[in-house]
User: Fold HD domain-containing protein from marine metagenome.
Amino acid sequence: MDDPIRPAFQRDRDRIVHSKAFRRLKHKTQVFLAPTGDHYRTRLTHTLEVSQIARTIAKVLRLNEELTEAVALGHDLGHTPFGHAGERVFRELIPGGFNHYEQSLRVVDVLEQDGLGLNLTWEVRDGIAKHSKGKDGSPVGIELSRRAATLEGQVARVADIIAYVNHDIDDAVRAGILNPDAVPCELTAVLGGTSSVRIGRMVADVVEQTLSDKNAVVPEIRMSAGVLRATLDLRTFLFDAVYENDVATSEFRKASGILEGLWEKVHEQPGTFLDRRTLERDGVDVAARDFLAGMTDRYAINLFEELFIPRSWAQPV
Assistant:
C-alpha cells in the first residue's frame, strides 16, 4: 500500500530503525568482547557511522539518500553476538556455514514482525544482500553478479569498509592492542595519519572517481587504484594486528565455548527454547541458528551462565 506521507525508501528506512533487530545491535560487539569503556564501538554505532558516510557520498553524487541510508542501516541486522569471533564460530558450528549478510536478509524478510518480515523494497533487500566483502573481497570493481544493482547499494558497501577500517583502529588503540604509530607509513602516506583524515580522503576519492566515470556504459561506484590498494592493505593490516591477534584468539575461544554450549543445549531441548511453529516450519538447525544469531552478547552470556554455571541454592542460615 502506498504511503501518502513517506516515499517507499523512507518507509523502508523507518521500518528498519523501528525493528527489534536494529535495537539489539546496541548490545552486539563490533570488535572487542565485553569492553569496560564507554567509548568502544558496538554494532549499532558502527551501523550509524556507515549510514553517515554513505549518505554523505550519496548526497554529493545526487543519488537517492533514503535508499542509501536504508541499506546502510539494515546491512548488519543479521550479525551474530561477539562480533567477528561469533561469526567465525557460527561458520564452523552450523551445518552449511553462516554468512551475516544472508542472515540480515532473512531478518528483514522473515524473522521480524513474528514471521511476517518488514516487506522492504527489492532495492533495499538487494543492497543488504550484497554489501559484504569478507576478508579478501573488494568494495568496488567486482563482477556484476556480486555487485548491488543500484548505485546506492554500492555506496553502502564502500561506506562499510571506510567506516570499519578506521574506527576499528581507534578502538584497538584505545584498548592498548595497537600502537597509534603502528599503521604502516606507506598507508598513512596515501590515506592520512588519523581516522578523520583517512575517512575524508576515502570519501573524496570515491566521489571524484565515480564522477569522472559518469559516461561509463554501466555506471559504478569507484575508487582510484592507489586509494583502493591502500584501503585493502589497511584491512589486511587490521586482520593481522587486531582481528586475528593473540587477544582476539583468546576471545574467540571464549565465544566458541558459549555458543557451542548453547547450540548443543538448544538441540537437546528444542521445545524449551524454540517456538513450536518455527520448529515445524524450519527444522531445529535453522530455528536454532536464528535464535542464537539474534542474541545480544549479554543475552548469550546470561543464558549460558543460567544453564551451565552452578549457583548456590542453599538458604542463608
The mean pLDDT is 90. The longest helix spans residues 151-174.
